[in-house]
Amino acid sequence: MARFVLQRLAFFGLVLLGVSLITFAIAHLAPGDPARMMAGPAASADAVAALRAELGLDLPLWQQYARYLGDLLRFDLGTSNVSGEPVLDEILARAPASIELMGSALLLSLLVGIPLGIGAAVKRGGWLDRLVSGLSVAGISVPAFWLGLVMVILFYRQLEWFPASGRFTGEPPPAVTGFLLIDALIALDFRALSAASAHLALPVLSLALLEAGPLARLVRNQMRAVLGSDYVRMARASGLSERTILWRHALRNALTPLVTLVAASIAMMLFGSVSLETVFGWPGAGHYVVQSIFALDFPVIMGFAVLTAIAYVLVNTAADITLGLIDPRVRPA
């Protein structure tokens, strides 16, 4: 098992090295001079040259990359060209909003996707099976921003059930964790809890619907494989009821890969939440990086790419290690 964990950690390091190379290359291939953008259009050529020297942009590329890699290892993602603040601080300040959105959407997608997948596997060929197939195709093919716009038109403009933008209306609860739902519960402020939930509703519903379909399809396929296995046929031959077979024997083994499914869902949400945060004006890290793209704030763009890659690889590495602990079959021989 130790060898298995070391292999996953080594792969984690290689991926991060590759990400650092890609982000460094993109930054240098992008149009424009970072020193000129930071100094402003009115700055003299001497001032721009001095700033280039201060930033190390006059060094050979390999030295620039070595400095960049060293900064990454110290968790220094640079300084925003727009705000002048450290990129890491800017992103972390907005991270709770993004995590609250993705966490709520993940919980909802699991609560919807797992029962749908189980029902579709048991009632093969029925309407629930066809519904899961349709939702799966829609979840893969429908763009997140398009679904978000549909939600705004339907539930905000037409029905006026939920707000269409922002994270909160009025005075927020005292900040303890940065997560409005948790902070409202800590303060026992149910008005704030209701307001925060209302603002969460549309972006969470949009993101969860995109993930629930593919998740239900994977659960359905896994459940079908288990229900067709030898030990389930033996259980039926022994006279056990279908309910006992399903809940006591089949479900436990069918949901073993749930760790991998959750990791895959989180990975997809990392990308889907960026466009949805923009559609709903959600003040998270995804919305911030979109604004930075339009402002050509390359340190923020590069920092967000690196942090997203770290989160993606960490989630998948943790899923692989966890699955190896609970299922010895996936460990290397």
TrEMBL record:
Organism: Erythrobacter ramosus
Keyword Chloroplast: no
GO molecular function annotation: dipeptide transmembrane transporter activity
Assigned keywords, A-Z: Cell membrane, Membrane, Transmembrane, Transmembrane helix, Transport
Family annotation (PANTHER family): DIPEPTIDE TRANSPORT SYSTEM PERMEASE PROTEIN DPPB-RELATED
Entry keyword annotation includes Transmembrane: yes
Stored PROSITE patterns: ABC_TM1
Protein family per UniProt: Belongs to the binding-protein-dependent transport system permease family.
Membrane-crossing residue ranges in chain numbering: 101-122, 134-156, 190-210, 254-276, 288-315
GO annotation, cellular component aspect: plasma membrane
Pfam families with a match to the protein in the record: BPD_transp_1, BPD_transp_1_N
InterPro entries named in the record: BPD_transp_1_N (IPR045621), MetI-like (IPR000515), MetI-like_sf (IPR035906)
Domain ABC transmembrane type-1: 95-319
Membrane topology label: Multi-pass membrane protein
Compartment(s) of residence: Cell membrane
Protein name: ABC transporter permease subunit
